[in-house]
Structure formats: C-alpha cells, structure tokens
Amino acid sequence: MPRTVVHCRTLQDIQLAIVAARSAGLSLSVRGGGHDWAGRALCDGLVLDLSDMKDIVVSPDRCSARVAGGARASDVLALTDPLGLAAVTGSCSAVGMAGLTLGGGYGPLIGRFGLALDNLISADVVLADGRIVTAERGREEDLFWALRGGGGNFGVVTAMHVRLHELPNVVSGVLVYPFSEAKTVLRRYADAASSMPDELTVQIGAVAGPDGMPVILLVPTWCGAQGRGDAHIAPLLELGTLLDNTVDAVRYGASLSVFDAHIVNGQRTFMETCWLRSLGEGGAEVLVEAMTKAVSAGCAIFTHEFRGASSHIPVQATAFGLRHDHVLLEIFASFPDRSDRLEERRHQRWVRDTRRAFDKIALPGGYPNLLGTGETDRATESFGPNVERLVRVKQHYDPDNVFCSAIPMPLGRSAIAAE
Asked: Which of 96, 178, 231, 240 has the most CB atoms at less than 10 Å from its CB?
C-alpha cells in the first residue's frame, strides 16, 4: 500500500515527485500503463502515476508517433487504426506502451517488424537528479542503448518517439482445438512452424474453455501482403478437430481485443516465465502435463514467438540479451483477491512447479519484463553479453538506485565475484 500517489501531468510534477521521494527517504515506483503482473508499478513509498499523461501525436509524414509515458496500446491504436497504420505492440490492448517497449515487446508483428524496442526512435527521460534528457542515436547513446531492454531502471520515461508501419489490416482470430488432441495439435504445429513466413506469427494458449475444461488456442496473425493471409493460415485449420474459427481480415487494433474480456482487474495473479528453443523439443508434452494438474480455471500457459526481424539484429545492438529464434512461455494463475491462504499457496505452487518442469529444456534466464522481484540471477543470465555495459550505464545515470522497482537489474562480473 503506497504512502502516497502523485498523479503527474507535467514534467515539473515528475521532477518534484522525485525530489519529494528522495528527500523523505521514500521508495519510488513509476506507474505507466499499470499492466505489470508483478505489481512493480506500486511500492510502499511514493508512486509516480503517469496515467494522466497519454497523449499520442502522429508525425506529419505518418512514419512515427510521439507516445506519452502513460499511454496504453489501445490509446495508440485508436488513433492509428483509422489511418491504416500500426505501432508494434504486445498481444493485448491493455498493455502500457512504455513498460512493454523498455523491457522488450513481444507481439503479433514481431516477425516482420521486430520487438517493440526495435521500433523506439527516441525517449524523453527525467533522471534521478531531476535533469530532463532525450536519448536517441547521437545523443545520450548509452542511455538509449540501455533503455531498449533494460526497462525503467534509469529514469522516468515521459514520452517515446516510436516507428509506425503501413498496415491497413491483418488476418487474425482464434482457432480452438480440444485438449484431448493437444499433443497432436502442438506436434503438428511445431512441424509446420519452421516453414512459416516471417509475416505470420502464432500465439498458443492452453486455457480453460467456457465449461471450465482446458482447450488449446491458436491465435494466428498475418501482417503481410493483402490477400495472401488465408493461404498461409490454412494449414493451421487442419491440425486436429477444429471447434471454433474466428479468423478474418480486421484492423490491427481489433485483433488485439481478443483477450480483453478475459483481463479481470482485482484478481491476484502469480506468474512464471521461461524461454524454450521451440515447443517441439519436448515442450508440448510438459505443457499438456502441467495443464492436467491445473488447480483452477484461472491457470493458463501462453506462448510468444521470437523470430524473423527480431532475430536479425545483433545481440549487442540493444540491451536485450537473446537474439536467436525462441519461444517465450507465460505461466500464470489468476484467482479472486479475497481467496484464503490455501488457495493462494495452491496457485503459487502450480506456477512454480510448472516452470520447474520446463527447466531441463529451458534456455538460461527469462524475459526480463516477466521476471519477479529478486530474480537477479536469472536477469543476469537473460542479458547475456550485455550485462557489464548495462551495469555501467545504471551506475552512471542512477548511482543511488532510485529507480529500483523496475525489472531486475543484473549483477556485473565484479559483484558476482564478490559473492
């Protein structure tokens, strides 16, 4: 429970809030879109809330947009959809653009346009000492490098300049398969995935259906040339006994609304994450086994693809530390906030046991945007060859660690040696 929440509307509000927190010895957190599952937008000290700062301005040439620090994907897409444009976003419209972009930004456009952070042109930042700087190529370049993957550990990002793409519509929707055929569906999908074009991404979900029993979802999104999506998606309709199919040509913003009705505020959520080379290396079997042990209808597993344009960028070009093809897993359990301690322990145990079941085939580390507080060791593995530079940038821009509620910072080699 925060001591106080400061609803900022100007840069001066932010500067004063930082001074107030530091002078009073209060911990500080920054709330942008407010979507973070780990609750890092809140702390027991001063919460700097940017939710009133969500203006979006599209550039005259329609190639970019200025996005304020409190804006969500839905705010951006409400403006860009009618123009036939799209920003690179996550997989649902409620996600805050700043947090998504600074930590990485997996989403349906990743194969063609890369991560959200690969589409960041510049960022306006209020630093711990109150200075306001713009980080971009040729100006505050170390900070610009670190912001693209290092999260909100360096200051308050008040606005971002992001690239926009011509995208009149996408072909997207949900394919539902029975859980009884899960292993077959996932195996056939894994076989087909390697030959899919970069313009086609597929998110997989193992979730509870309307009757509370699990089903397998495939959410394909074609963002390539008009008229070619149906042909590329067609093989996905033949993976098993298709129970439902909502795939159609829609605006990009509409395609992100698929999960909106299932995002319930006020729920408790536990989440774990890991990276796999692919689902085809034993991952499907582990996923199916985990879902048979789900403790409630609030348990689910989702995948996010990383390939195409996102894999073509050198690993040291940004702070993001894993630049080869892989699959990100989100393992989460959601339940009513007023549940008793037994329910809390049951759900927490399920997500932990499920993540551990993937350990034998998982890659080191995990997606920093989904790592929890205290997972410093995993963060260190996640940033790979970028650890030392990231630590140096942190020490330069925030030596007193004022911004410590963001994604876990890695330990440098010197710190590891000291331990």
From this structure: 96
